[in-house]
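Entry 12.
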Amino acid sequence: MASVWKRLQRVNKRAAKFQYTASYHRVDLDTSPKWKPNKLSVVWTRRSRRVITEPKEWEPTLKDPLK
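Predicted 3D structure (C-alpha cells):
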C-alpha cells in the first residue's frame, strides 16, 4: 500500500530533469580487417530511460588503423 501512496503523491508533479555534458577524449575500438565502422554513436541508459547520440563520422587513427 505504501507504493500506491507514493504514486498518488506524485500526481500532477513534474519529473526532475538533469542535463549532462560529456566530452570524448579517447575512444578505443578493436576492429578487424573484415569489419571497420563508418559511424559511431553512444547510448546512455539509466533504468528505463535511453538516450542515443547522433552518429558521428568515424576517423581511424593514422598510427594503426586496425586498432
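Annotation: Helices lie at 2-9. The beta strands are 39-40, 43-46, 49-52, 56-57.
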